[in-house]
Amino acid sequence: MTTSKPGGAPLDLRERVPEATALLTVVSLALVFAAALGVFPSGLLPRAPEAVLDAIPPVNAVVSLVAIGTIVAGWRAIRRGNVRRHARLMTTSFGLFALFLVLYLYRVALLGPTPFPGPAAVERFVYLPVLGIHVLLAIVCVPLLYYVLLVAATRPTADIYGSLHPRVGRAAASLWLVSFSLGVVVYALLYVVY
């Protein structure tokens, strides 16, 4: 992918993957924190009916379960040497991650965070630690995911093997799986168990 510098010389995104990763990460996390901390003006968002807002948590739980499946399948595909299938599955996983995040942040921007309805001891010793690890891993995954996607998008397949993509991708996929799994646990604690 090539664009032009102001002087007319080409700017190759391939040579700017770390910078593009940093920029996308900062913008994405700024939007996430703005919505989660109530800084984003919710009046700018169209308000969906209550039934739609109520449907977001179970929809996101299903999205998370499907993403767990696509990440595992993508991991298996690359271990078997099926690069094309791996690329499709991991791109799908990223799309599911983005869908989850858009739905979650939309709901949080309008309604605020969902309070834990269970006992205080469970909240303190189970729910909050699980939620904290889930959120921390999701944040850590953002730059890793952008990096591996940008490397994959800007290089021929043969060049990817010589890059950091395989090593960073393994770390990203592992953390992503744990984060999605803990997200399902958070959903269960909020909406099923209590």
TrEMBL record:
Q: Name one GO biological process term.
A: respiratory electron transport chain
| UniProt cross-references to Pfam families, sorted A to Z | DUF420 (PF04238)
Keyword tags: Membrane, Transmembrane, Transmembrane helix
Transmembrane helix: is it a keyword of this entry?
yes
Keyword DNA-binding in record: no
GO CC aspect terms? membrane
Q: Which residues cross the membrane?
A: 21-43, 55-75, 87-106, 126-152, 173-193
Kindly list the GO molecular function terms attached to this UniProt entry. Answer: cytochrome-c oxidase activity
Question: What InterPro entries does this protein's entry cite?
Answer: Cyt_c_oxidase_su3_a-hlx, DUF420
Q: Which PANTHER family match?
A: DUF420 DOMAIN-CONTAINING PROTEIN, HYPOTHETICAL MEMBRANE SPANNING PROTEIN
Under which name does UniProt file this protein?
DUF420 domain-containing protein
